[in-house]
Design goal:
The protein is mainly α. The protein has a domain of 205 residues. Helices cover 84% and strands 0% of the residues. The chain is built from 21 helices and no strands. Helix 6 runs parallel beside helix 9 and helix 10 runs parallel beside helix 16. The radius of gyration is 24 Å and the shape is globular. The chain starts with a helix and ends with a helix. The C terminus is likely disordered.
């Protein structure tokens, strides 16, 4: 097995394991805290720390690793001075943010959740103070993990995908009755500390890493990283602010609104990576190569194929989970503190979020196309403008729709985003594009036809999740058959060919 294949396998295994454990931890959280005031307060308190850590992880991955690789190749004698200085600079900046946040926790929560009562504000501010040190450990984790990845070391940084959900389950099961949602906060804090400790220990033991307590903020390498990070961070401060906008509007609604949206968003967020990750990882390098070679026709061809495949996979999920989602949500969450009314509320929000799924999946590839042609600033500006549209939609819809305004605005936002970014990209990449509209209509028709064929059986499922799961699987099979045999969609043919080849190869291995 090649080194790249082995590395990919390690990351994939830990990612899948982490997804499974995270899913289980969410089930345990729902059972113990439901969708009441405690969960609302906790989710509101996590808004700012998650916002900051998302910006850190998003900006560092695109800026630190390229500069590290450049110095490793051209000026190896200076590399650890750059690494050490930047790690120390970021740690000090994160520490300063943490101190300011601890001091101003109450006014910060008043700004994020203006509709909270005094009691909720006091409790959320307390949780925020406990959560803020996570920012420091995350800054350290992201930078050290980047160094590990750059030197082809994947196991230790990948452990965090497992550590966090395992500790969350342990802390909630042990302390939920005495500490309430603070048990989740302490689990998050402990997990980030343990991960940082493992990375630091591995860093110290390795003879390849040479960290020092230097702080040369004027070093050309440090300045280059900061210059690369600045526009990304400035853009992310706005277009990564969806959770802050959500908390702002939801805080004025009845109790449980923040929790219902949180659970629905987590469900949708767990589906998207499954659809997107494999395709985007394989297509982005190809788009980058074609962009570098100025072969725009090939770039458009591979992009259109990727978008069509993502839509083909996403369309039946939207339709079938829209029909059978409630009993599945009931199976996952409804026990103990999570009531039947919570299941219904989460299901309604989930249906709206599903409407954003195909656009969100396709949007991942379209955004990568902008990066491939080095239009980073343009996509950032578009994202900022669309984020302002999202806030406006929330404001317009919150009164008539209540908590459902958030997922409804999200669905409109993502569909507007894919239309806007695609139209602008078509102008940037002039010339003929592969036809797509007929494909979208055919895929949608196949999904609706499959759903229509099994819809008469809906009453047989009732609230029984296993029966609903069988009907969903049947719907997917019908969708595939209709797409391949009646509508002759090449995406269905490609999946069938891949499946058949895998089946034949595994059978050949078995009979040897």
């Amino acid at each position: 097995m090649s080194k790249i294949a082995r590395s990919s396998l390690i990351v994939t295994v830990f990612t899948l394991l982490g997804l499974g454990l995270s899913f289980l931890s969410n089930v345990i959280i729902a059972a113990n805290f439901g969708a009441g005031m405690d969960m609302d307060v906790f989710l509101a308190a996590t808004t700012l720390p998650f916002f900051i850590t998302n910006i850190l992880s998003g900006s560092l991955n695109f800026t630190f690793i390229p500069v590290f690789a450049e110095y490793r190749e051209k000026e190896p004698s200076e590399i650890w001075k750059v690494v050490s200085s930047f790690i120390n600079l970021n740690t000090l900046a994160a520490l300063a943010l943490c101190i300011i946040g601890v001091i101003l926790a109450r006014p910060i929560m008043s700004a994020i959740a203006p509709g909270f009562s005094e009691d909720k504000l006091a409790r959320s501010a307390e949780l925020l103070r406990w959560l803020l040190p996570v920012i420091i450990f995350t800054a350290i984790n992201e930078l050290l993990a980047s160094v590990y990845y750059s030197t082809q070391r994947f196991i230790i940084p990948s452990l965090n995908k497992v550590i966090s959900p395992v500790l969350t389950m342990a802390y909630v099961l042990a302390f939920h009755s005495s500490l309430s949602t603070k048990s989740i906060v302490l689990a998050m804090l402990t997990a980030s500390f343990v991960q940082a400790s493992l990375l630091i220990i591995g860093f110290a033991k390795s003879g390849e890493f040479h960290y020092s307590f230097t702080l040369d903020h004027r070093h050309p390498g440090v300045i280059k990283i900061v210059k690369l990070m600045t526009p990304l961070v400035l853009g992310m401060l706005i277009y990564k602010a969806v959770p802050i906008v959500d908390a702002f509007f939801l805080s004025s609604l009845p109790g449980g609104s923040i929790s219902h949206i949180g659970y629905a968003a987590k469900l949708t967020g767990s589906i998207l990576p499954i659809i997107v990750s494999g395709i985007s990882i394989s297509i982005f390098p190809a788009m980058s190569r074609y962009a570098a070679a100025k072969d725009l026709d090939a770039l458009k061809e591979v992009l259109s194929k990727g978008v069509k495949m993502l839509f083909f996979l996403g369309a039946p999920i939207v339709v079938l989970l829209g029909i059978y989602g409630r009993p599945i949500i009931q199976l996952i969450f409804e026990r103990r503190a999570f009531a039947s009314a919570d299941t219904t509320a989460v299901y309604y929000a989930f249906v709206f979020y599903l409407l954003a799924l195909p656009a969100g999946a396709a949007g991942t590839l379209v955004s990568q196309a902008y990066y491939a042609i080095q239009e980073n600033t343009l996509i950032a500006l578009i994202s900022v403008a669309l984020m302002l549209v999202y806030a406006g939609l929330c404001l317009f819809l919150i009164k008539p729709l209540g908590y459902l305004a958030i997922p409804a605005a999200y669905a409109l936002y993502y569909n507007c985003a894919i239309l806007t970014t695609t139209l602008i990209l078509r102008k940037k990449l002039s010339g003929a594009w592969p036809p797509m509209s007929r494909f979208f209509l055919k895929s949608s028709a196949a999904a609706l036809a499959a759903a229509g064929l099994i819809y008469p059986l809906t009453h047989l499922a009732g609230d029984r999740a296993p029966v609903s799961a069988v009907f969903c699987a049947t719907g997917f099979i019908l969708y595939f058959i209709i797409s391949k045999t009646i509508l002759s969609l090449e995406e269905a043919g490609a999946i069938w060919t891949l499946f058949r080849e895998q089946l034949v190869s595994r059978y050949a291995l078995w009979i040897r």
